[in-house]
Design goal:
single chain, alpha/beta, TIM Barrel, 8-stranded parallel barrel
């Protein structure tokens, strides 16, 4: 996820990011993930992992990497700073400034380091100043709570207007993808709703990709 030039004209087309469920079985997730990767222009896959021992976690990451990276998408791991290099991931996403500072010190410049869980504009600006590769707005916390969508949309629009560093807008439903792209998100993340009906994964990715193309055509 490279930084875009400030006030680029024309603005680079927004792209999709996939956010996995918390994976306990990478093999069982292979089929829907493969379908999703084929169905649209996927920039990155943010992999969330269920708790397990270290070796099991590394094996899960490697199994997903073998599917994601050959498709040209970046493999980003949610947390697990200690494992990312050994598992062969492209980068990591952490929550909050404290975790970001640690990850940045340990992994830059060799890995992507993104950050979510930013409680305020100030925190987001500090993350940018400290060298975040991207920021994410709108993702649920551990309890599943997230800000109202109007607030997420406003935060994305503010960021896109002011900062060079890319932002990822988390779409909590299919209807949120287009507004986030229109607000200026460089990447739109598709969350848990994408995977709830395996038979609908390709259609939902395709629809989201079409929404992004329509927004780009209007911009």
């Amino acid at each position: 996820m490279a930084a875009r030039p400030k006030q680029a004209d024309p603005r680079p087309a927004p792209r999709l990011t996939l956010v996995t469920p918390r994976l306990a079985d990478a093999a069982a997730f292979a089929a829907p993930l493969s379908v999703a990767l084929e169905a649209g222009d996927i920039a990155a896959v943010l992999v969330r992992l269920a708790s397990a021992d270290e070796r099991t976690l590394i094996n899960r990451i490697k199994a997903i990497a073998a599917m994601v990276q050959p498709m040209g998408a970046a493999l980003i791991i949610d947390g697990h700073v200690d494992l990312i290099v050994r598992a062969g991931g492209d980068g990591i996403q952490v929550s909050g400034l404290t975790n970001f500072t640690e990850a940045h010190e340990r992994l830059k410049p060799d890995r992507i380091v993104g950050v979510g869980g930013l409680a305020s504009r100030h925190d987001a600006m500090v993350a940018a100043e400290q060298g975040a590769d991207y920021v994410m707005f709108g993702e649920p916390d551990e309890a599943g709570a997230r800000p109202g969508f109007a607030a997420i949309e406003e935060r994305v629009a503010w960021w896109a207007e002011v900062f060079e560093i890319p932002c990822v807008g988390y779409a909590g439903s299919p209807a949120e993808a287009a507004p986030l792209a229109a607000a200026g998100a460089d990447f739109v993340a598709l969350g848990d709703w994408l995977w709830r009906d395996e038979a609908a994964v390709a259609r939902r990715v395709g629809e989201a990709a079409a929404c992004l193309r329509q927004v780009e055509a209007i911009a």
